[in-house]
Amino acid sequence: MYPAAMTAPSKNDDRAERLAAALRENLKRRKAQARAKQDGAKTEAQPPKSPRK
Question: What is the pLDDT along the chain (53 residues), one digit of tens a residue?
Fold first, then answer.
């Protein structure tokens, strides 16, 4: 028998790839927001340093 011909990816495959990429980007954005929020909480908890003369 002949080997199976390579076909173009179906619409479902394209959609799944787009959704996976969107989920990865969303996760990166949420992690960055959480880090920024956590870093902001750390800096607010520390008293401001007074300038030395």
Answer: 566 666 666 788 999 999 999 999 999 999 999 999 998 877 665 666 767 66
* DSSP code string of 1-53: -PPPPP-PPPHHHHHHHHHHHHHHHHHHHHHHHHHHHHHHHHHHHSPPPPPP-
Angle at 29 between CA 13 and CA 39, to 5 degrees: 160
Q: How far is residue 1 from each of residues 4, 5, 7, 8, measured CA to CA in Å? A: 9, 12, 17, 21
